[in-house]
Write a structure and sequence with these properties.
single chain; 98 residues; mainly alpha; 59% helix
């Protein structure tokens, strides 16, 4: 497990001003859909805006600001996930990942 975490790099430490959005992103990540991978692994979709708005309303946050911040975090997460899938595919295909 430690070796696997080491491969993923340093932990993210968000700025204090955006911890509320970071916590929301983590709380809502289980609400995202996943696309079936067919012959490959499943890939995540974005967190639905309706879930973000409901969370913001429930917790007294600005829904538009939370949606923008979660969208930005999803951009990074989806890109990272695609990179991890590519690396895993290259390893199983026997191709050199670099």
């Amino acid at each position: 497990m430690a070796a696997r975490l080491e491969e993923q790099g340093d932990a993210v430490h968000p700025h204090p001003w955006c911890l509320w959005a970071w916590r929301a992103w983590h709380a809502l990540t289980d609400d995202r859909a996943w696309r079936g991978g067919g012959m490959g692994p499943a890939t995540p979709c974005r967190i639905p805006w309706s879930v973000i708005v409901a969370y913001a309303d429930r917790h007294g946050h600005d829904a538009d600001q939370l949606r923008r911040l979660i969208s930005a975090m999803d951009d990074v997460f989806l890109e990272w996930t695609a990179e991890q899938i590519d690396k895993a595919t290259q390893k199983t295909d026997g191709a050199d990942p670099e």
